[in-house]
Amino acid sequence: MPPSSARASSILAAVTSGLVLLGSQAFAQTIEEKAQVCSACHGEAGIPQEKTTPVIWGQNEGYLYLQLRDFNKGSRKNEQMSPIAADLSKDDMKALAAYFTKLAWPNLQQPSAAKDVSTKALTAVGSIGCPSCHLDQLQGDGTTARLAGQQSAYLKQTMLAFRDGSRGNNPGMSDLMKAISPEDIDAISQYAAGLQILGGSNGR
């Protein structure tokens, strides 16, 4: 079996196991035990298994809760996340968001974007007003995602999904992504990924 297929099978097995735990044993689990299910994709040390999987360690609490809620309700869809979130209660989602936001954002060792890429990204960011929600240096706050230091491939995939409508849980973001080009999106993903987390490893 090719390495990529073996990894995919391993992740699928872990997620399937997690679904069993979250289903039949949900009431017997601590929040730490439930959080272990997430490590199958998001990583034991907060570094995701795949480049297109987001960092959730140290992410803003309100944002994490809203995404779990949207997966739970079906307004955001993902082959792995949708069935997992479907079995979570509101209290579970709040507790998981609170748990992960307290963990240190991992160092992915992503390089700073090249000067020409940064210039292109900053022009695009300014044209659609990203800092008005994601704040200075794209740190985010509350219910707005921290983009700084996030996986570049995930950022690009997400922005393109908003642009083509395949991710539909934030219509405002879709409108903004349609106002810039795919080349702008590529530059923003590289720029944001290379930014530092202010105030320490997890911004706190």
TrEMBL record:
Residues 1-28 form the signal peptide. Its main location: periplasm. Coiled coil: none annotated. Keywords: Electron transport, Heme, Iron, Metal-binding, Periplasm, Signal, Transport. Heme c 1 binds at C38, C41, H42, M81. Heme c 2 binds at C130, C133, H134, M173. One of its GO terms (molecular function) is electron transfer activity. The keyword Electron transport applies. It comes from the Bacteria. SUPFAM superfamilies: Cytochrome c. The keyword Acetylation does not apply. Residues 18-104 form the Cytochrome c domain. GO terms for cellular component: periplasmic space. Binds 2 heme c groups covalently per subunit. It is found in: Periplasm. This is C-type cytochrome. It comes from Hyphomicrobium album. The lineage of its organism: Bacteria, Pseudomonadati, Pseudomonadota, Alphaproteobacteria, Hyphomicrobiales.
